[in-house]
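Below is one such protein, fold included:
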Amino acid sequence: MKKKIAISLLLSAFALGAFAQEAPYDTLTRPQLISKQFSFTEGASVDKKGNVFFTDQPNNKIWEYSVDGNLSLFLDNAGRSNGMYFDRKGNLVTCADEHEQLWSISPDKKITVLLKDYQGHLMNGPNDIWIDKKGGIYMTDPYYQRPWWTRTKPDLDGQKVYYLPKGKQQPVIVDADLKQPNGIVGTPDGKYLYVADIRDNKTYKYLINKNGTLSDRKLFVEQGSDGMTLDKKGNVYLTGNGVTIYSPEGKKIGHIPVPEPWTANLCFGGVNKDVLFITASKAIYTLKMNVKGVE
């Protein structure tokens, strides 16, 4: 009997060890505070080198946190940028919330307006984006009343998800049946898209069709999210109350506490893309991970 118990304990220890090796992060490690000098941080996005860019929307600035740990101002008067994503040419595409536009900011800081309106009407307020391999842009467009706006109600009916094909000036609606879409991210193979309906506290998974439209919408998890990202194992990272990690099957596999009122966005940065960069309220944090990001 003792031998059987010993073998059972050994197998259990081996199983726990295997799980620990597969865990995306060391659960005994807490996120490291980098800076707390902002008003509200958002829009975490990483370039090819691993440098991370993020916004301080109330102060209308975009900041850069380099791979060597230096924090510097990238752009002032940044169009009240919110969500951001780098395209394949190294341009930083941003949700320029000041006038409900999409901007493309080149490495030398030249600004090109990619999207001004939808059929002559102002967008609600582009919030978050993901860019596919063809250069098409998926965008969530919820309505959050901003203090810098003169209007007090939306021009459009409903809060929707759009797709802007590369080179086009008008987007197409790809999902009109959400209460308040917010976080969005796609898989690197271009097959699937995740969209969070933050007001309904749900995140959905879609099949991406060849023409950029979406189909086969399925409930992924009963949790909404502000920003989101993926790692190379296909795990999905949702924000709000810290960071919650789900397996590709929708099973909760971890929660990273962040000591701030709200966690807004995140991405993987660093030379090896294995450092989780987190924007949370007035602060930014980093956490070394056991997995790498896909962006």
